[in-house]
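Researcher: Next sequence.
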Amino acid sequence: MLIAGALSLVGITVFFLLHPIITGKEAPLWSAGEEPSEAQFRKRISLLQLRDAEYEYAMGKLGEEDYQALRSEISAEALSAIQEEEAEHSPASGGFEGPSDAELEEEIATVRSRLSGGFFCSECGHPNPEGSRFCGDCGTPISAPNPVPSS
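Model: Next structure:
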């Protein structure tokens, strides 16, 4: 009985080890998506550190003086990273150029058409097209129509 249990455990282990090889699944050593730049990574880390400092201060774990010093240091790092990221994506550097005027006008026309015939969600204020049963942003059921105010 003990030998049968041990053999079944070995069999299951071998199956799980060999299954990816047999099915042809593999884990690539590189990322298929775009990797964040160093500036994007620094910005993300700085903003997370700033959030954590806010929590620590709100919970009373940081004094006012320590909080202000930490906040100014982290804010300076975040601002530096944001400026570096914007410089990477500026049109002069060959990076992000933004949408064209025609694309912006098309998006504005789409929003206006939704606003003219739709309704605002009573929970989040998101404009929804006429006939919507649920808010497209928060998922709240739309029971009574709240007309979009005309401007």
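Model: The two ends are 80 Å apart (CA to CA). The first helix runs from residue 2 to 23.
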